[in-house]
Predict the structure.
Amino acid sequence: MITEITREDFVSFWPTFKAIIVSQTTYAFDANMSLDEAYQLWCTAPLKAFAYKLNGQTLGTYYIKANAMGPSNHICNCGYMVSEATRGQGIAQQLCEHSQQVAKSLGFTAMQFNSVVSTNEGAIRLWQRLGYKIIGTIPNAYKHSKLGYVDSHIMHKQLIEPSS
């Protein structure tokens, strides 16, 4: 079930969140970030954040926010994390599909991912299957902990046509 995230949900997901940022393979977050800093960044700074829960466990989460301000605030940005033990079970897809519905309900017309690490092939395949296109590649944008500098992609999907 996907619900708006609570602090308790985030605290239970914290070991997964911490492992993801420490691995330095997909997210450009400070590996030394505290739980409180992460909660602020992921749950309170964005417009909304959600948790995917099953049997009382938080197995995944996403946030949604405007990608930019003013005349570009009709495009949103989201970030997704899923526990390693449950990857490949469709949770990220459910989170992304949910986020698209939330985006439309909030008045966003498109969704953009600003930095999808090129070596995150599973995520790229999923986003493409869900209709996202790579609209740009930033050379050497991410310093991967094992591979060194790798490219990052900007991915975009039009959700609804904007009205004038």
Observations:
- The chain has a mean pLDDT of 96.
- Residues 75 and 110 are 5 Å apart (CA to CA).
- The longest helix spans residues 7-23.
